[in-house]
Amino acid sequence: MTDFMQRALAEASSAAPAWLQDIQARGRDAWKDTRLPTRKTEAWKYTSLQALQQPFTVPGRNAAKADVSDINLPQMGGPTLVFSDGMYRPELSATTLPDGLSLVRFADADAAQAEQIRAALGSALLPGRHVFAPLNDATLADGVFLQVAANAVVHEPVHIAWLTTGQHEAISITQRLLVCLGDNSRATVVETFANTATGGTAFTNGITELLLDRGAHLHHYRLQLEQGGAVHIGGVHARLGADSLLSGFHLALGSALKRIDLVVDHQGPGAHCDLDGIYLPRGTETVDYHTCIEHSVPHCTSKERFRGIIADEATAVFNGRIHIHPDAQKTRAELSNKNLLTSNKAEINTKPELEIYADDVQCAHGATVAQLDPLTMHYLRTRGVPRDEAEVMLSYGFINELVEAVAEPALREFLKPLLANRFARESRLTRHIL
Fold first, then answer.
1. Which has the closest alpha carbon to 139: 10, 325, 18?
2. Which of 3, 108, 183, 339 has the CB geometry, 3.0–4.6 Å to 150, for a possible disulfide?
C-alpha cells in the first residue's frame, strides 16, 4: 500500500454515527485491496496522481469557524446547506423545507432515515467504476440525504455548498450526497464546490448518487469552482427508473487536479438523460472527465454534450463512453465533445467510444479539436475590436449554447459573469458579451 493510502486510512474519522461504522469498515477492507491507478492504467493514461503525494490531514472541529465570506455562491432562494472544510455551517444554511422534501445530514438522521440511507447508499455505484469509492466509504463521517416523496414537486432549487478555506494546509475532505426521488416527483439540485481566495491545498473525495424512480424528473447541477492547489477526485452515479428524466450540467474550472467520473445507468424503459458539461483549465491545471452512459434496457435515450476551452499549458482529458447492452433495442444515444485550444502549449486528449451489442439502435458520437478561427478574428479586428476582447468574445461564444440551456434562471445569470471573467482576466474585456 502506498504512503498516501496508509495516511488516508489513518486519518479516517471516528466521529461517524454508529450506523455508519460498518460501512466504514467495509470501505477500509476494500481500500486495503485497492491499487492506485498509474499511467499504465488505461482510464488514467493521461492523468497523474502526483498531486496526492503530500501529507493531507482531516481538519478539526474548529474548521466550522473558518471565514468563507469571500466565496461567491449562486443565490437561488431555496433550501441551502453549507459545509466548510467538511463541517456543517448552520448559520449560513437555510433549512425551511417545502412539503414533500426531506433534507437531512447523516449525522442527524433518525432511526428510520438511517435505515433508508443504509439501504440506498452505494446502490448506484457499479462495480469497479470509481477507484476512490472505498476510500470515501472508509472515511465517511457525515453526508447529505435528500429525498423527494412520490408525486411531490419541489419548485425551488435545493443548494448544497461544499467549501474549502485557507485556514488549514493540505486538508482531506470526504463529501457524500444521496438523492432519492420517488415516483413522478420533480426537483432541482445544485452542488457547488468552491474555495476561498487564500484556499490552501485540499483533497476532496466526493461522490454523489442520484436514484430516480419511475417517472421522476431531476435537474442536477454540479459546479466545481475550486482553483489553485485544490485536488478533486469525484463521481456522480445515477440510476434511472422507467420513464424518468435526468438533466445534468457540469462545470469545472481548473485547479491542480480535477478528475470526475460520471456514470448514468438506464435501468427502466423510457428513461432519458441529458448531460452537458464545460471545462476550462488554464495555467498548468488539469481537468479530466470520464463519462459512461449505460443503456441496459430498451427504449431509452441519451444526449451528451461537453465542451472544453484549454489555455496556456493546461491539460484536459475527456473520455465519453456509450454502452448499449444486448437487450437495449430501440436505443437512441448521441455524444459530442468539442474543444478549443487557445495556446500552442495547451493539450486535450479526447476519446469518444461506442460499445454496441444491440442491432436496432441509433447512435452517434464525435469529437473536434480546434483553435480560434483566424478569419473570424480578422473580421472582429477590422471592425475595431481589440485582439484580447475578440478572444474573450470567441471563447465565450464557444460555450454560450450550453450556458443558455441552463434551465434555472438565477443559476444562468450567476454563470455568465463568472465565465466571462474567467476568459478575460480583466473585467474591462467583458463589456461586449454581458
1. 10
2. 183
Q: How many CB atoms lie within 10 A of CB 292?
A: 19
Long-range contact set of residues 400-404: C-beta below 8 Å, sequence gap at least 24: 402/249, 402/276, 402/277, 402/278, 402/305, 402/307, 403/278
Count CA atoms closer than 13 A to 178's CA, side-chain side: 24
Q: Is 80 exceeded by the pLDDT of residue 197?
A: no
DSSP string spanning 235-298?
EEEEEE-TT-EEEEEEEEE--SEEEEEEEEEE-STT-EEEEEEEEE--TT-EEEEEEEEEE-SS
CA distance 277 to 256: 19
Q: What is the pLDDT of residues 136-183, one digit of tens each?
A: 999 998 999 999 999 999 999 999 999 988 666 678 889 999 999 999
* Chain centroid to CA 342: 24
Query: pTM for the complete prediction?
Result: 0.93
Compute the C-alpha angle 24/94/262, nearest 5°: 45
Ramachandran quadrant class, 215 (left: phi over 0; alpha: psi -120 to 50; beta: rest): left
Residue with cell 429525498: 147
Rounded CA gap, 170 and 50, in Å? Answer: 14
Q: Give dist(CA 191, CA 189) in Å, integer.
A: 7
- Helix 387-404 / helix 374-382 crossing angle, nearest 10 deg: 120
- Written as one letter, the residue type at 430 is T
Rounded to an integer, what distance in angstroms lies between the CA atom of residue 6 and that of residue 223? 30
Q: Computed from CA positions of residues 51, 52, 54, 57, in that sequence, does the dihedral angle turn out positive or negative? A: positive
